[in-house]
Please model this.
Amino acid sequence: MSKKVLVLGEVRDGELRNVSYEAIAAAKEIAAGGEIVAVLCGEGMSNHGQTLLHYGADRVVLAEHALLNEYSTDGYVQALLQVIDQEKPEGLVLGHTALGKDMSPRLAARLESGLISDVTSLEKVGEEVIFTRPIYSGKAFEKKVIQDGLIFVTIRPNNIPPLELDESRSGDVSTLSVDVKDLRTIIKDVVRKASTGVDLSEAKIIVAGGRGVKSTDGFKPLQELADVLGAAVGASRGACDADYCDYSLQIGQTGKVVTPDLYIACGISGAIQHLAGMSNSKVIVAINKDPEASIFSVADYGIVGDLFDVVPLLTEEFKNVLV
Ligand code: FAD
Model:
């Protein structure tokens, strides 16, 4: 039976996040021919609405209110509840991002619905959609179905391929003036850390450094390799604890969970807590001078050597091929 499915489009720093397109692709599976309605919160979002149509949404609702220009749990939950009340969807898909992780449990509680979080893939078996999600820090996967009520899921970025961009796709973009009030948190100012470019959680390629980089300067060759590859730089907690880099780069159980196409681990031993954040990467390359390092047990390609010799060689080779 076809279903109407709502998708939240996520905008950060004025840009739509890729996970919004991936959510539309996931919603298509759930909808089984039904309608996909994308929702955008905040003012001045109509251009983004068009982009969501090009990525496969059938219709877009702009939930407008000045208090939604910056994310707050209260504000977004209030807005989405009003859109849900208007649209009465049978499915709801959000990204398993900082925003999605923050608001989805509250939304599920308000809707008295279940929630399957951190979905990495989904498959149709007859009428049912089976969702796969990692458990035990990625050491095992469970498969779940929702048999009754709203099909509410959050999807892990970089796992469900988006539909092809098709600029000929069109659809209705309507505005809903939502009522947002009694916010317990008012965002007065957002102070951003200087970013080195590519967003870690959505990066297709990550060059990560561990305690083996030995200093802040030791990250420089990794950054050079990342620049040539258009990659993001990440780190183990060992490197963060040693103050070689900022904690915002930490990957792992207590850091970011990433699933890039290519993960290059440099001077990282491969502790279980680190693997929890990156072992689902599609291709893993490990560079470590200890041939017994655990990182090699998850690596597709292992290079036993000193990262300060190997990384610059890789950078030179990639420069020849790519630049
Ligand atoms: P090390 O284990 O010290 O490894 C350094 C590696 O570099 C070694 O294998 C060494 O052979 C290699 N090396 C040294 N010099 C060179 C060189 N010149 N060239 C090549 N290789 C070299 N860790 C995380 O990463 N993320 C988490 O989210 C996380 N969460 C945690 C949560 C808890 C509750 C706990 C208890 C721990 C957590 N940890 C986490 C820490 C984790 O257990 C490890 O301590 C940490 O991952 C080790 O970091 P590392 O591999 O960089 O350092």
Residues 12 and 250 are 20 Å apart (CA to CA).
